[in-house]
Amino acid sequence: MTKVASRVFNFYRDGFRQMTVGRTLWKIIIIKLFVMFAVLKLFFFPNYLNTNFKTDEERAGYVLEQLTRQPVQNIK
Amino acid sequence: MIDVDPSLVNWSRAQFAFTAMYHWIFVPLTLGLSFLCAFYETIYLKTGNEEWRKITRFWMTLFGINFAIGVATGIILEFEFGTNWSNYSWMVGDIFGAPLAIEGIFAFFLEASFFAVMFFGWNRVSKGFHCFSTWMVAIGSNLSAVWILVANGWMQNPVGMAFNPDTARFEMENFAEVVFNPVAVSKFTHTSSSGFVMASAFVLTISCWYLIKGRHVEMAKKSIVVASVFGLVASIFVGFTGDESAYEVAQKQPMKLAAMEGLYKGERGAGIVAMGILNSAKEPGDVQDAFLVQVKVPELLSLLANREPGSFVPGIDDLVYGNKEENVMGVNTMMEKGKLALTDLAAFKEARKNKTDQVAEAALERFNVNKEFMGYGYLKTPEEAVPPVNIVFNSFRLMAIIGSLFPVIFGAFLFYTMKGTITEKRWLLPVGLFTGLLGLLAQQAGWVTAEVGRQPWAIQGLMPVKIATTNLSTTAVQITFAMFAVVFTMLLIAEISIMLKQIAAGPEGH
Question: Is the peptide bond before B309 cis (omega within 30 degrees of 0)?
Fold first, then answer.
């Protein structure tokens, strides 16, 4: 078991070490994920319902309110 | 009354369209190039010829670059669901949860695990296992697409669910019905096969550049042979899947089909407009001609839309105002039913709040009679159900015209490469050089047709886009739109520059 784990570890370690173009690509991936999750998601894209309501019941109530407000006004 | 600012809806819509279109630059290339790498490597495995190994590694490097830049761009769409489309997200959470979770598992286990073997495994695992891993990456990438398209197909044709008025959610009742939704099936076959065409066109573009420059000639010719066979078969298949897709549109989203054809007055034995210029002043219900100029193939639309020559294809006016003779219910009638459904839903909600169960039950019973028209209750005028006809008509034609060129282009390249005279055909090589760009245009035009064509609906007939959106400030959406424009453009520049560098270095530079 340990032998297999060590072979898998070595496989990935050597693979990462021998990368050429891959090094640049990994840098881009890490920067991209950082910008997406640590900047965009955190500061600009909060989950609206999760942020503003505590329980699913409250969220359901809010959405139902949104769904049913407009038509009542619209009916002539 | 909810006062949804139309500019908020449009900015939210533009932001989603923008990120989806950027995401879709990378995805089709991943879908098709993964299979091309698998083909090249299988030939290497069978022949043992080192030239094929070199070819495989070269295209695999370009595949890796595209994958790395494109990976996670789709996550932005999920952020937008939670922030900009919270009503929609809440309502479809139960339906989308399962397909997207399966997508995540497939993506992780098939792509991620075999991806490492594909790139790190040369000379370190057996040739057979390496080739197997490449195939698994290709299959895994395409299976991931299945689940995303199942979700998209459901929005175009919501099946296998029931609306729960207590939780305000669509709940899945029949998983198989959702997965084998005919719209989802035709969407997957059409989308994935068009991805194969896109990747084949990409290989043609780069190989033609090498041939024009007189570099890596043998590699380029070998690459072209495989890409042309794959592209030829896939582009013919795209024609069939496109036909099936249009048939499903005709049956499930007749308004979209009418917009695709610029058809205002429905007719029996309707023809297809091969080429035409729409009259931009034309409005539903008026007496103006829909076209300034048109070239029409008679009877063909009826045959393709209903599989029956001479059958009736409803036009925009029939769908908006109804056509009793042809048994077409108009949007005006559906709006009345929709408003009743929403009034009953509001009554149900109030009765639940007041804990008057009998009143709630009666309201629910009335709601169930008209619930399938629920979304129409939000429309202010029947004409609001008409998508932007000009965009849909023209994008559909752009896609179809480019699509019909591909079999000819791939056929010509295959013929002359097999004959051994491709390097002498100086007129054909520049055509090949632009094939990738044509593929990209067709891809984008296809999605514009599909997504603009289904407006105003987020969920067909049940939820218009304006109700799906979160009531945020327009400025907040404009700011994030600008941020995405910067981030995604930087990513695209990074991809193009790394790829160009790699292409310039050639097969020895991986």
Answer: no
Q: Which amino acid is at B291?
A: F
Residues B404-445: tens digit of each pLDDT = 999 999 999 999 999 999 999 989 999 999 999 999 999 999
Distances (CA, A) of B471 to A2, B84, B187, B298, B309: 55, 8, 31, 47, 47
pTM as predicted:
0.91
Where along chain B do its domains lie? 6-258+387-502, 264-321, 331-382
DSSP-derived letter for residue B283 is -
The CA distance from A3 to the nearest CA of chain B, in Å, is 16
Asked if B2's CB is within 8 angstroms of A70's CB, the reply is: yes
- The yes/no answer to whether this complex scores an ipTM above 0.90 is no
Angle, alpha carbons B340-B341-B343 (nearest 5°): 65
- Residue B299 has phi, psi (to 5 degrees) of 70, -20
Neighbours of B421 (CB within 10 A): 11
- Do the Cβ atoms of B248 and B241 come closer than 8 Å? no
Residues of A in contact with B470 (CB under 8 A): 48
Instruction: Give B 346-385 residues with CB within 8 A of chain A.
Output: 346, 349, 377-378, 380
- Give me the amino acid identity at B337: K
Q: How far apart are CA B63 and CA A69, in angstroms?
A: 50
Closest CB from A44, A66, A73 relative to B480: A44
Q: For residues B174 and B181, give the distance between their C-alpha atoms in angstroms, rounded to a whole number.
A: 11
Distances (CA, A) of A8 to B117, B135, B306: 11, 21, 56
| B375 neighbors B464 (Cβ within 8 angstroms) | yes
pLDDT digit string, tens, across residues B126-148 = 999 999 999 999 998 888 888 88
Give, in order, the Cα–Cα distances in Å from A29 to each of A26, B65, B68, B107, B495.
5, 11, 6, 17, 11
CA distance B100 to B135: 22
Identify the closest residue of chain A to B119 by CA–CA distance. A15
Identify which of B79, B90, B502 has the shortest CB distance to residue A59. B90
Beta strands in B423-490 (DSSP E): 457-459, 463-464
| Identity of residue B124 | R
Q: Which amino acid is at B424?
A: E
Domain ranges of chain A: 1-45, 46-76
